Amino acid sequence: MKPLVTLRTVPRTVVVGAWCVAGLLVMMVGGSFTEALFSRVGYPGAGWGGVPVTFDLAGKRAALDQLAAQGTLEVFGWVQVVDVTIIVGTLLFFTALSVLAYRAQPPGGWLDRLGRRTTAAFMLAPTADAVENLTALVLIAGRPRPLTVLSLANSLATLAKTVLFIGGWVALTVLLLAAALRATATWAR
Q: pTM of this prediction?
């Protein structure tokens, strides 16, 4: 007897949509926990979303020294570990959403190319975030003398993550608006 539902009978859009929902759930739950933990750290100059981008090694050393003096350096290390939930959630959610948005575009056009690049950006941004967290953990472990090259890699990863996410969000907005306009034009006929 054949099963009623198999992966071949479920449309790919439903599978990608399920990844999108799963990513959103992981990102929201993990993000809430990570932000709550990060709020206890007291990192100097940090706002919502984490540590500010800086290429100032002396400033990073001073910030880590301040956390050590406050007794929150270990908590900051745990924030880097727990942030993996946000990384996985954003990878799943934004990659799946961009795939859905670019599949709604006519093939071969500039929107199709934009969709592919947007999906790539949403795959690379969480990767840069993971590199940022790994280098931050090594910087924390290397206190009081963190490596200059490692600090540079940490800052470059933070910058890359930020640029890729912002570029991806802008492009995703264009893709979603184009899909909505096309759907509206089709519906109005």
A: 0.82
